[in-house]
Design goal:
With about 210 residues, this protein is of the alpha/beta class. The chain contains seven helices and eight strands, in the order E-E-H-E-H-H-E-E-E-H-E-H-H-E-H. The chain has helices at about 20-30, 40-50, 70, 120-135, 150-155, 170-185, 200; strands at about 5-10, 15-20, 35-40, 80-90, 95-100, 105-115, 145, 195. The strands form two sheets. A five-stranded mixed sheet has the order 6-5-4-7-8, with helices on one face. The protein has a three-stranded antiparallel sheet with strand order 2-1-3, with helices on both faces. The two termini are about 15 Å apart.
Amino acid sequence: MSKKKFYVVWNGRKKGVFTSWNVCKKQIEGFENAQYKSFSNLEEAEVAFSKKYEEYKGKNTTKPVLSAKEKASFGTPILESIAVDAACSGNPGAMEYRGVFTHNKKEIFKKGPFKNGTNNIGEFLALVHGIALLKGKNKEDIPIYSDSKIAMSWIKQKRCKTNIHFNDTNKDLLELIKRAENWLKENTIKNPILKWETKAWGEIPADFGRK
C-alpha cells in the first residue's frame, strides 16, 4: 500500500495544496514553468505553500517512516483530552472543523462548511472553539491537541494571520474569525495546547478521514 502524499503547487493553473496527484497533475501538466512538490504530510505541505518554491527546489521533501525507537521518543498522547481538526476542499474551498474526545473519538462539536476558507483558518477556529467550550465547563486543565503548528502559533498571537481574500462569499467566516480573535483577547488561556505527533501516533482522532 503506497504512502499518502500531499502536493503543493506554487505555480500552475490553480495554486494550493492538493491531496490527489491526479488533481495536482491537472494544474501543472503542460503549464509553462510549473512549480510543484510532494510532501509526506499535510502540515509540511501547508507550511511549504506559505513559503517560496525556491526554498524547496531540488530538496527531498518526503521523509521515511519513523523507526520504533523514534516513535517511542514521542511517548503516548494524553487520553483525557480533546482533539480538534479541520478539513478543506481546495485552498481556498469549503471548510469545516470539529472537536472530539481523544480517547473514543466521540464528536463534541462540528461547524461548517464555510465557503472560501482554508485548513489553517479551520484549525484556528477549532482550537478557539475547544478552549472556549472547556472554559465554560470549568475544565481548564484538560489538554487540547492540534496537528497544526501554524494554528497553534496563531492562538499564541491571539490573531488569525491568514492572507486569504474576504468578500461576500465568505463574510460570515470573517465575522467568525473576528469573534474568535476578540474572545482570545478578552480571556486567559489555561488549557495546555499540545501538538499531536502524527508521525508517531497516526492521524489525529478528530481527522475527517478524507485524505
